[in-house]
Amino acid sequence: QVQLVESGGGLVQAGGSLRLSCVASGRTFSTGRTFSTYDMYWFRQAPGKQREFVATINTSGSTSYADSVKGRFTMSRDIAKNTMYLQMNSLKPEDTAVYYCAVSSLWGQGTQVTVSS
Fold first, then answer.
1. CA 51 → CA 26, 43, 76, 82, distances in Å?
2. Which residues 6+ apart lie within 8 Å of 108 measured at CB?
3. Contact at 8 Å (CB) between 29 and 2?
4. Nearest CA among 70, 72, 109, 104 for reference residue 88
């Protein structure tokens, strides 16, 4: 069974940058499809708030972002490494949250991002 494992979170000052990674362990999902045939997502959940969409990349490599992160975050993927990334620049305190990657019905365990003012 494929598992998703995030890394790269941490504590950063406002205006700083972080790059999150999400690695899929195993190439083939239980459906028989491979990592590259799925759209991929990043979500985040701040304390006391609902989980919200951050970014997605489709099978063609096109990306889409939440308005709150547009122009500051960039999502990418490396199919050969079964890995997706979220480059986060110009971070703001309101970006503080646990960040999750998702593919199909699978979710990672989350990685904490804390932005200090």
1. 26, 7, 21, 24
2. 3, 4, 5, 6, 22, 100, 101, 102
3. yes
4. 72
What letter represents residue 52's amino acid? E
Residue for token digits 């899929």?
Answer: 24
| Residue among 94, 6, 85 nearest 40 (CA) | 85
Q: What does each C-alpha distance from 15 to 6, 95, 107 come to in angstroms?
A: 22, 11, 28
Contact (CB, 8 A) for 115 and 93: yes
The segments of the chain whose pLDDT lies below 70 read 27
Q: How is residue 105 written in tokens?
A: 């019905």
Q: Amino acid identity, residue 30?
A: S
If one counts every other C-beta atom within 10 angstroms of the C-beta of residue 27, the result is 12
Cα 36–chain centre separation: 16
- Give the span between the Cα atoms of 115 and 12, in whole angstroms: 5
Task: Give the pLDDT of residue 90.
Answer: 98
